[in-house]
Every structure is written in C-alpha cells, then in structure tokens.
Amino acid sequence: MLTLLDELGLGEDFARLGAHHVQGASIPVAGGGEPVTVVDLSRLRVQHPYIAMAPQWDVLTLLAEAAAREPGFELRTNAEALGPVVEGGAVRGVRWRPVPPGSPAGTGDRPEPERELHATVTLVCDWRGSALRREAGMVPRSWPVPFDVWWVRVPGHSALSETLAPRGGRGLLYVLIPRGDYVQAGIIFPRGGGPGLLAGGIEALRRRFSEDLPELAAGLAGLAEEDLKFLRVELSRLRTWYRRGLICLGDAAHTMSPPPPPWAGWA
Ligand SMILES: Cc1cc2nc3c(=O)[nH]c(=O)nc-3n(C[C@H](O)[C@H](O)[C@H](O)COP(=O)(O)OP(=O)(O)OC[C@H]3O[C@@H](n4cnc5c(N)ncnc54)[C@H](O)[C@@H]3O)c2cc1C
Do 240 and 110 fall within a single domain? Predict the structure, then answer.
C-alpha cells in the first residue's frame, strides 16, 4: 500500500499524516531481559520496511481529496448501495438510493426511490457483511473462530518498543500496538466469554489487565466499560472475487485472510 501511494504521487501527502511506524514484533521474556525479536521488518529490502499505522478516516480523506482532483470523479456520500444492475449475465452498475445524512443504510420511514448508476466495472467494498456481494449471489466461505477481541485505546507513552508485542495473561492474550502517544491494546478472549469477564465489574477487569500489563497500568486507570470496543473476529473469503463486471475488494472479499492452513485445525 505504501509503495502504491508513492506510485500514485501520494507518498508525501501520506507522510504528512504522521503515521506511526511499527518495526516488527517481539516477545518479552520473564525476568525483565531483552525482548526476543520474532519479526524484524527493517531487514526487508523495500522503500518502507515497516507497518504504517494511521487513522483510517485520515487515509480515506486523503484518497477522496486526491480522487477529487481527477476529471470525471464524483463522490456520492449518504448513498446506500442496494444491489447490482445485471444485464445479459454481466453486472452493469449498481442500484442505489440516497439516505438521510447520519442515518444507517436501510433506515428511514419513507425511503427514497431506487436509482441506477451504470458502470463498466463495479467494485464491491461495503464491508464484511456486504449487501452487494449477497445480492450478486456470491457467498464467502467461513471458518470457525474460537475467540473475539476487545480493542482499547490506552493513553500515554509506554515502555513498549516500536514493535507489536503479544503477551500472555491469565486466560487472556494481549496484542499491544504502539501508536505514538497511545497504545492500541487488543484483548483476545474465548468466544462468548465477554459477559463472564465483566461479571465482577469493570474495576475488577481493569485490575486484571493492569496486573497482566503493569507498564500500561497508569493509562488503564480511567478504563470504563464503553472503552472496550468489541470486534467479532471473522475468518472468511470468497473463492472467486469477481464476476463479469464486478470485483469484490477488502473485507467484502476476505475478512482476516489468508485462511489458516489445514494443520491449524480450522479447515
Ligand atoms: C474494531 C476494529 C478494529 C480494527 N483494527 C484494525 C487495525 O488496527 N489494523 C487493520 O489493518 N485493520 C483493522 N481492522 C480491520 C479493518 O478495519 C478492515 O479490514 C477494513 O476497514 C476493511 O475495509 P473495507 O473498505 O473492506 O470495509 P470498511 O472499512 O468496513 O468500509 C465499508 C464501508 O461501506 C459502507 N457501507 C456498508 N454497506 C453499505 C451499503 N449497502 N451501501 C453503501 N455503503 C455501505 C460502510 O458504511 C463503510 O463506510 C479493524 C476492524 C475493527 C472492526
């Protein structure tokens, strides 16, 4: 993606977003020794040997502004895609309707009438629950996942190095992503276990996190239940990502892929 941005002449604009660079992954060792580096991206012979972490909305705004400079580009927001326009077995565009600003797609007492937008190629990128994909008759293959994640933004600089850091806890696994002035912490727990973990209240859970991750204890001090952003982890992908006139992209094509190998027991 970073090379692609360079090739599009957007590398400098992206650099101005101040993305945080993650250099690899390392695992801490007991007794406070040097963490063991398990992934070192700096050894890659590429222009950008790191993962750039930037807020998704900043990247989308950058792309929309760059696209707006192209002749013939038009961005229609507050528009709900309803399904493909199919002619002679090929997709020739999309059925859509305007939706009131701020309202989720598919709501409203008096929906606007449907309209059609014709196109040579229609890209489907309406998230993992893609309505367009469904309406196009494309069904992804899914694999069972035994865990879910709470994402938490933990403010403050930490003693973390600039690497992704997986950590074990008592019955929990943590992924810590340094983001400059905060840490993006993923708390991985067995599927369905959220209510049980919260049974003792948010304060008991905060204590547990702080004991498992002492270097984040100060940032976790004000943790409230609404700070836990639940992500249902899914693993799915389309076997064929296209049909005539239509290409699926992003989560609509694959959520957390590639799928695991058969030996992982998830086949
Ligand atoms: C809590 C959370 C944390 C994550 N953290 C990370 C991370 O740290 N790093 C990372 O790489 N990935 C992360 N991901 C995954 C990442 O967000 C997705 O892989 C990525 O956003 C997929 O992009 P997308 O364009 O396919 O779909 P989305 O980003 O989901 O965008 C789909 C868009 O389509 C719109 N839409 C939906 N239906 C319709 C319709 N019918 N008509 C019109 N518009 C529609 C939606 O409103 C949305 O704007 C995270 C995901 C979640 C939920």
Answer: yes
The full 3-state SS of the chain, as one line of letters, equals CHHHHHHCCCHHHHHHCCCEEECEEEECCHHHCCCEEEEEHHHCCCCCCCEEECCHHHHHHHHHHHHHCCCCCCCCCCEEEEEEEEECCEEEEEEEEECCCCCCCCCCCCCCCCEEEECCCEEECCCCCCHHHHHCCCCCEEECCCEEEEEEEEECCCCCCCCEEEEECCCCEEEEEECCCEEEEEEEEECCCHHHHCCCCHHHHHHHHHHHCHHHCCCCCCCCHHHCEEECCCEEECCCCEECCEEECHHHCEECCCCCCHHHCCC
CA of 200 to the centre of ligand 1 (A): 32
127 CA distance to ligand 1 middle (Å): 5
- What pLDDT does residue 267 have? 46
pTM score: 0.83
| Per-residue confidence band for 115, with pLDDT thresholds at 50, 70 and 90 | very high
If you average pLDDT over every residue of the chain, what do you get?
A: 88
Let me know whether 128 and 257 are in one domain.
yes
With the most atoms of ligand 1 within 8 angstroms of its CB, the residue from 112, 127, 130 to mutate is 127
| CATH at residue 85 | 3.50.50.60
Average pLDDT, integer, range 46-70? 95
Task: State mean pLDDT over 111-137.
Answer: 93
Q: Which residue range is the domain that position 239 belongs to?
A: 79-143+235-264
Residue 232: CB within 6 Å of ligand 1?
Answer: no
